[in-house]
Amino acid sequence: MTAPPHGRSAAILAIILSVFALSLGDALIKGTGLSLPLWQMYILRSAMALPMLWVLARRQGPLWPAAPRWVALRSALLVVMWLSYYLALPQMPLSLAAAAYYTGPLFILGLAAAQARRWPTLRAWAAITGGFLGVLLILRPDADALQPATLLPLLAAGLYACAMMLTAARCREESPLVLALALNIGFIVAGLALGLLSRADGGVLRGPWQPLDARLIGTIAALAVIILIGSVGAAFAYQSGPPVTVAVFDYSYLLFSLLWGRLFFGERPGPVALLGIGLIFAAGLLALPRRR
């Protein structure tokens, strides 16, 4: 069934707005990650976003998920995914972390082939190979430069792929708003658990609770709005338009990450890194299913 033109246009606009907001939020987290521990940010951001999500989900229908165990597992995967990605941001350029993270579709290709118990197609192998070469060009692993932190976006991409496969297999009938509500509850639970382990030398992950000033409160409020726009906007986009078309515009995140990295942090990826980003972008497009 073909989506109407106005539905396709609205979906494209929604996904661009969503990735614009999420990439800006990641830039804000990168900028404040060294002054505010992630567990504290998890709690405060989701506590601000939950009331609006609850109101929207309440208007749509029942709040309790049809498959609570699978929804909880999905939320846990995504919480750890974002944690891995956020931990990488202070230690590498935003655009390079984003490019490594957007290898997610390649992981999905591999997982889908394993689930179907068949070898990937030639097109899928080309996408996987191109994405792998792109990652090598970005990370340039050698004995001196390779750090564990550079692998965190790849871990995030693998967790994202697992979460999306689980969504398709076990959470297809769930309301996107209920999924977003469960995810933010998961953020708060994870934040409280990490907070119990906090200590003075805990660093970005388990540092002590930091006093809030007007700037940090404003930043957290902005992050709450951003996570609301990003989660609901992406859900609306994939419900309203052809998934292949929406996924293509989802990759505009890479362009926005280049923009924010340049404006906020003065990052200028070299030609080799840009070539790697281009290869990952092309591999991601190649990994998408063909339009009927």
Count of folded domains? 1
The succession of helices and strands, N to C, reads HHHHHHHHHHHHH
The low-pLDDT segments are: none
Mean pLDDT: 82
Helix content: over 70%
Q: What would you call the structural class?
A: mainly alpha
Contiguous helical run count: 13
> What kind of sheet is the major sheet?
none
Number of strands: 0
Distance between the termini: 10 Å
Q: Strand percentage, roughly?
A: under 5%
Task: Describe what this molecule looks like in 3D.
The protein has one domain. The protein is mainly alpha-helical. Helices cover 76% and strands 0% of the residues. The model has no long low-confidence stretch (mean pLDDT 82).
Q: Any chance you could write out the topology, listing elements then pairs?
A:
Blueprint: H1 5-32, H2 38-60, H3 68-88, H4 94-101, H5 104-116, H6 122-139, H7 152-170, H8 176-196, H9 203-206, H10 214-240, H11 243-250, H12 252-265, H13 271-287
List keywords for this structure.
0% strand; 292 residues; mainly alpha
In short, what is this structure?
The chain is mainly alpha-helical and 292 residues long. Helix content is 76%, strand content 0%.
